[in-house]
Amino acid sequence: MVNLLPFMGHQGSPGQQGMSQIGLGMAIAASMVVLTMLQQFLFNHFSGYLERCLRKLVSSMDPYVHIRFSEDSTDSSGPKNYEAYAAIETYLSSKCSAQAPRLKANSVRDINAPVLCVDDGEGVSDEFDGVTVWWHLGKEKDQGDVYRGSRNNRYYALTFRKRNRKMVVGEYLRHVMEEGKAVAASNRQLKLYSNSSSEHGAYWDYIMDFDHPANFETLAMEKEKKEDIIDDLIRYLLHGPPGTGKSTMIAAMANLLSYDVYDLELTAVRSNAALKRLLNRTPCNSMLVIEDVDCSSKITNQREKYDKDDGKTVKNILEKVTLSGLLNCVDGLFSANEGGRLMVFTTNNVEALDSALLRRGRMDKHVEMTYCGFEAFRILARNYLGIEHHELFGKIEVLLNESSITPADVAESLIARRGKGEDCGEECLKKLIEALEKKGEGENGWM
Ligand SMILES: Nc1ncnc2c1ncn2[C@@H]1O[C@H](COP(=O)(O)OP(=O)(O)OP(=O)(O)O)[C@@H](O)[C@H]1O
Ligand SMILES: [Mg+2]
C-alpha cells in the first residue's frame, strides 16, 4: 500500500493530529481500494463495450469494406471454404501475371497446370462493371490444436468502397467464383478409365491421362449440327461408318465438359449385377462410353446359339450382360444427366441395334456421323493446312458431293505432305482431288 501520510497537511494537536492523520489516511486508502475495484469492475464490464464503440467509430470513418476468404478448410464451413479460396486464386492468376511484381506458381492441385498467384503480402486490383476492387494475399498464424499443431493460414482479402457493397457482394463475387471454377475445370487433367473384372467383382482401372486434342472447333461437321449437340449433352448414340469421327466427337465432348472418360468394354462385364456395380462406381462429372454397342446384341444372340449346343456354356454366357440389363442401367442410373453424367454409345451399324435400345428417351439423341461434306472439309483444311480459301475449293466441293469419303480419309490426304516445306497446301489439295476422283470412279463402277 502506498504511504499517503507525507502528503497530508499538519492540523490539530500532535496527538489529535496523529489520530486524525491515521483516520484520514485509512479513509483515503479505503477509497483508493474502492476506486481500484471500481476501475477493475468498469474495465471488466465496459472495456469490451468501449472497444466496440471505438471500433464502430473507426469503421464508420473507414470508407472501405474488407472481406476475408481463408484457405483453412478445418472449420465448420469445411471444404467449401477452400473451394472459394481456390476459385479466387485461379480467377486472380490471369490478373496477377500482368500486375504483381512478385508471383509464385502453385502446382499442388495439378502438376500439369500450375496456377500463377501473387506472392504473400502482394496485391492486385481488378475492375468489374466500372468498379475497382483490391485483392491482397495475407498470412495469419493459426494456433491449431494438439493434433495438427500451428501453421500459417493464407487468406485473400477483398477491399472495396462501401458504396459498391451490394454489387461486389452480389454480382462481382458470383462472377469471380464462376470464372475461377470454369478456368480450373478447363485446366484440369482429364483421365481415361476402363473396366476390368476379377472374381471379386468389376472395377474401373485408370488407364492414362486423357490428352486428346479434339474440340468442337476442329471437329469437321456442319455448324448447326454441332450447336445442337453442344446445347443438349445428355445421352447419345453416335452412329456412322468407320472414320467419320465418332471417337473424335467423344473426345471433343469430354474436353468441352471437362469430364473424365469411362470406357466400358461390355464383353468384359460378367453379369448384369457387375454392370450395375460398375455404373454405380462411375462418379459425377464423368462420361460413360460404350463403343460398338452392337456387340451387346451379339451377346444376346450368342446366348440362343449356345443354348442348343452345350448346357455348361449356356450358364457362362447367360451370366453375361444382357440387353435388358443394359437398358435398366440406361433408364435408372443415368436418368436426366443426374450428377453431371453423360452416356454415349457408338455403333457402325445402327440397323443391328435392338429397337428397345434405340427408343427415344433411352438415348435422347441419335447423331449420324456422315461422310465428309464441303463444310466439314473446310474445317479439316483449316486444321491441317491453315487454309481458309483456295481456288481448288470449288472443284473439291463438286467432287465431295459426288462421292463418299470419310473425314478420316480426307485428313489422311491433307497430312500426307505436312513437313515438306511451308507451301504444301496446294499439293495436298491436289492429292485429295486425286483421291476423290479415284473414289468417284470406284463408286460409279468405273473401276
Ligand atoms: N469429323 C471429324 N472431324 C475431325 N477429324 C476427324 C473427323 N472424323 C475423323 N477424323 C480424323 O480421323 C481419325 C479417325 O476418326 P475416328 O476414330 O474419330 O472415327 P470413328 O468414327 O470413331 O471410327 P471407328 O468406327 O472405326 O471407331 C481421327 O483421329 C481424326 O483425325
Ligand atoms: Mg471409333
TrEMBL record:
Domain of life: Eukaryota
Cofactor dependency: Mg(2+)
InterPro entries cross-referenced by the UniProt entry: AAA+_ATPase, AAA_N_dom, At3g28540-like_C, ATPase_AAA_core, ATPase_AAA_CS, Mitochondrial_chaperone_BCS1, P-loop_NTPase
Hydrolase in keyword set: yes
Catalytically driven reaction(s): ATP + H2O = ADP + phosphate + H(+)
GO molecular function, one term: ATP hydrolysis activity
Keywords, in A-Z order: ATP-binding, Hydrolase, Magnesium, Nucleotide-binding
SMART domains: AAA
An example Gene Ontology biological process: response to stress
PROSITE patterns: AAA
Domain AAA+ ATPase: 232-373
Family: Belongs to the AAA ATPase family. BCS1 subfamily.
Family matches, as PANTHER family: BCS1 AAA-TYPE ATPASE
Protein name: AAA+ ATPase domain-containing protein
